[in-house]
Write a structure and sequence with these properties.
alpha+beta, single chain, about 15% helix, about 45% strand, globular, 6-stranded antiparallel β-sheet
Length: about 130
Amino acid sequence: MFDGDRASQALGIELVETGPGLARARMRITEAMVNGHGTAHGGYIFLLADTAFACACNSHGPTTVAARADITFVRPARRGDLLIASAVERTRFGRSGIYDVSVHRGDDLIAEFRGHSRSLTVEGVRP
């Protein structure tokens, strides 16, 4: 799935780890990602977390999309920062799932993201 994700790749996001129900992705904050306050625009941090979420929730096979997601920004990121988003599956039930993603700069927590997924298909079941 990540191989076809042109949006994430265009921003320099790299997938560094995957496994069943988990993923880690990283991105360096560039000058183009900084807002008028001199900090990383929240949309880019959200996109990094969403990419890790997408890779984790698609790790089981059926095409899976976001049904809902929210993020809490804990501290700012700045130009040059290398951010790492670590996604982990909390639960899967039927065609739904819940995933948490922590975004860090080194040991500093930057944001917490929670995504709710929905599989479009399950083996033998059509939506």
